[in-house]
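Anyone opening a protein record will find just a pair of labelled lines. A complete record is shown below as an example:
=====
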Amino acid sequence: MPPITLISLTEPGRALAERLLTLLPAADHLHRPQPFQDRVRERFLTGHRLILLCAVGIAVRTLAPVLRDKYQDPAVLVLDEHGRFVVPILSGHEGGANEWARQVAQFLGAQHVITGAQRYTQPLLVAGLGCNRGCPLEPLLALLDQTLARHGLQRHELRALASIELKQDEPGLHRLAATLGLPIHFYPAAVLRDYSDRLSRKSEIVFRETGCYGVAEAAALAHAERLVGHDHPAELLIPKQKNADATLAVARIYGNLDP
């Protein structure tokens, strides 16, 4: 996925950017970078998706000289410093800015303002799981139900389960999928490693045991991004939760399921 840079100009903007870093932990945050226009243009031209916490006019005047076309320009969002409105100003469809704006707005409790032609999409949730060898159904189901309840979600909102290939022979995971009536998908460690920079926390212990730095979060993100058949980024809606036997994370992506 393309890197992300948050750029703020005011103290309320700085606070909002720091809040957004909990949603986007791999992002960079530049506060009052100098010279401002040069730094913003440099990030834009190297392919960074941008969240600019400033007036739309400032964003437009800054980026106008370096715009190419909607197929090359990265997604750009503009937010007011108090986080009330999220406006995608570049690469709405092709770069995923419209759906990204919806994700950011939902996280902040803000209003997304999309001015282009709309394509209906829906939030799709995937639960990623890891577990101890021989883990039975009961602790998996308990962790799932407790986590969903804490976040105001229900089982029927999930579209799929995902884990690492090392766990594809675990009866407990297959029993969980059958109990929920959901498909379960298993990914190689090499695929899950691609999500290392987007994890809430990287574990060297997990890496030594599995070949990737986190199973539940990476599996959830990996399958969410494959679920709808396009390259828009998934977000980590619920970071890793755990009990004595299992780990769980939930990823969300906006889109439509392929027929």
Notes: The two ends are 25 Å apart (CA to CA). The mean pLDDT is 90. Residues 45 and 68 are 9 Å apart (CA to CA). The longest strand covers residues 122-131.
